[in-house]
Amino acid sequence: MIVAPRPLGADATIGILGGGQLGRMLALAAARLGFKCHVLCPDPQSCAFDVVRRVTEADYTDKEALDRFANDVDVVTYEFENVPAETATFLSARRPVLPDPKILATTQDRLLEKTFVTSLGIAVAPFAAVDDLAGLEAALASVGRPAVLKTRRFGYDGKGQVTIRAGDDPAVAWAEIGEQPAILEAFVPFEREVSVVVARGLDGTVQSFDLCENEHRDHILKVTRVPAAVPAAIADTARAIAGRIAEAFGYVGVMAVEMFWVAEGGGRVLVNEIAPRVHNSGHWTQDGCTVSQFEQHIRAVAGWPLAVPVRHGRAEMLNLIGAEVHDHKAWLSVPGASVHLYGKPVVRPGRKMGHVNRVFRD
Ligand SMILES: Nc1ncnc2c1ncn2[C@@H]1O[C@H](COP(=O)(O)OP(=O)(O)O)[C@@H](O)[C@H]1O
Ligand SMILES: [Mg+2]
Fold it and tell me: What pLDDT does residue 211 have?
């Protein structure tokens, strides 16, 4: 049995699983609409804890804590995609959980995700399942080189993946990803990486933000620019693809679809991965748009009408990664720059510490 969602009253409490910066910014957006939030996260230093009314510091498998959490909230949502299926099922029997946890089963596994996207008639890079070294050799024969070997589960910021080029020993790559169930994907000679942040409301309304163009450094998002410098037809196609995926999932909330724009042969869009949550490439919306991705997500899970996003101008989002967080002092006096800091107590290399949004009305 699952509890069906319904529109929330203004005094409702929204439960958020996960206490990182995405949870923090969701809670801040919820507060602006008058909602209260309760964050559950095992990490005592969760930066979302600092901005909400109630926190539960507990493991995702702690049934007693989950029960108390569920009793205190009107709806449950999440800020990260690796919520254990068992946790989601447990909570779904007590409160509406949005987006529907069954979507997580698909997006937590690259093989299921790519198979699902393909089943909708949407293009992805050629791929093959890999379960052992012999399977990897067979996959290389069908997919070709260069190719990217990725673990099926738990990959992020380029972790759990390795590129196999001409002359590379497959056994080394297989060892490097820890001999885990994986997929092999053809390396895509993309022109640009782009993403669509899309929302679907409880009433089925779909609203997508403008196409973003993403630049990574060391596999971590560094800069997002909006609108993406791609032909208009490509942008339309990309947004339509994201909308179709949201509809096929019966999604409620905000999700992001990462894609590659390949210019050769007239140009096409390939889906890379789906994030069933608010996404780093949507942070620009906080200052560059009439509604942020965070507010849009809260509206969706609250069963409120979605906003129609209107962009204020050309927008740029710059991540402050690791020690770059100290650069915020310089950004504070740059005209048109908005500084966002996550309040994380420990600076670590590669850790997302904050971001700067800039809007240009040219
Ligand atoms: N098939 C591919 N071809 C070319 N580049 C890729 C491919 N797959 C991933 N990459 C690069 O690696 C980055 C991270 O891969 P991704 O699949 O998005 O995993 P995650 O973001 O979960 O670490 C991508 O943003 C892209 O820059
Ligand atoms: Mg990615």
Answer: 98
Res 153 pLDDT > 90: yes
Separation of 82 CA from ligand 1 center, angstroms?
Answer: 18
Rounded Cα distance, 43 and 49, in Å:
10
Question: For the segment 299-345, what is each residue's pLDDT rounded down to a tens digit?
Answer: 999 999 999 999 999 999 999 999 999 999 999 999 999 999 999 99
**Nearest by Cα to 309 from 193, 195, 199:** 199
Closest-lying ligand 1 atom to the alpha carbon of residue 155 = 22
Yes or no: say if 281 and 221 are a contact pair by the CB < 8 Å rule: yes
Q: Are 108 and 148 in contact, with CB atoms under 8 Å apart?
A: no
Q: What are residue 17's phi and psi, to 5 degrees?
A: -90, 120
- For the stretch 309-343, what's the b/e string if a residue is b when 16 or more beta carbons lie within 10 angstroms of its beta carbon? bebeeebbbbbbbeebbeebeebeeeeebbbbebe
Comparing CA positions, the residue from 350, 301, 259 lying closest to residue 293 is: 301
Residue 95, CA atoms < 13 Å, CB-side half-sphere: 27
Q: How far is the CA of 21 from the centre of ligand 1 (A)?
A: 22
Is the CB of 187 within 6 Å of ligand 1? yes
Residue ranges of domains in the chain, CATH in brackets:
13-97 (3.40.50.20), 126-186 (3.30.1490.20), 192-360 (3.30.470.20)
Q: Tell me the pLDDT tens digit for each residue of 212-264.
A: 999 999 999 999 999 999 999 999 999 999 999 999 999 999 999 999 999 98
Burial of residue 222, with CB atoms counted within 10 A of its CB: 0-12 exposed, 13-18 middle, 19 or more buried: middle
- 3 state DSSP class of 274: strand
Say if residue 185 carries a ligand binding annotation. yes
The SS3 of residue 362 is: coil
Q: How far apart are CA 1 and CA 123, in angstroms?
A: 35
Query: What are the φ and ψ backbone dihedral angles of 95, each rounded to 5 degrees?
Result: -145, 160
